[in-house]
Amino acid sequence: MVVERGMELQYTYWQDGAFFVGFLNDYPDDSTQGLTLAELEEALIEVYEIKQEEKIHLASIRKIGKLKVPA
Predict the structure, then answer these.
(1) What pLDDT, in 10s, does the model give residues 33-68?
(2) Rounded to whole angstroms, how far apart are CA atoms 34 and 7?
(3) pLDDT of the residue at 4
(4) For the chain, how many structural domains are there in total?
(5) Closest by Cα among 35, 7, 16, 36 to 24
(6) What's the CA dihedral at 7, 20, 30, 57 to 10 degrees?
(7) 3 vs 58, higher pLDDT
(8) CA–CA gap between residue 28 and residue 3 (Å, rounded)
(9) Distance, CA of 2 to CA of 49 (rounded, Å)
(10) 46-53 — which CB contacts under 8 Å span 24+ positions?
(11) Residue 63: what pLDDT?
(12) Which site in 26, 29, 41, 59 is 20 to 30 Å from 12, CA atoms measured?
């Protein structure tokens, strides 16, 4: 899967020693890093692509149900 051209993804990042560390705001549990901000952004695109592939796979097995809680 390829990220759509012109698409914007928000991310949070910080510098930790020699590395830039960050995560996509939609996926805060999946942090990654790079030696430069550009490397971090490339890694974040990879995270996004992986998450989109997982979403397609999980959509075929996960279902949404509704649960009514008794009053």
Answers:
(1) 999 999 999 999 999 999 988 887 776 676 778 989
(2) 21
(3) 66
(4) 1
(5) 7
(6) 40
(7) 58
(8) 18
(9) 7
(10) 47/23, 48/3, 48/9, 48/24, 49/1, 49/2, 49/3, 51/24, 51/26, 51/27, 52/1, 53/1
(11) 75
(12) 59
In a domain, 30, yes or no: yes
The domain containing residue 25 runs over which residues?
Answer: 11-59
Tokens representing residue 20 in the block: 């830039």
CA distance 44 to 20: 11
Q: How far is CA 70 from the centre of its chain?
A: 37
Residue 6 lies in a domain: no
For residue 6, which amino acid is it?
Answer: G
How far is 8 from 3, CA to CA, in rounded Å? Answer: 9
Answering whether pTM is above 0.85, one says no
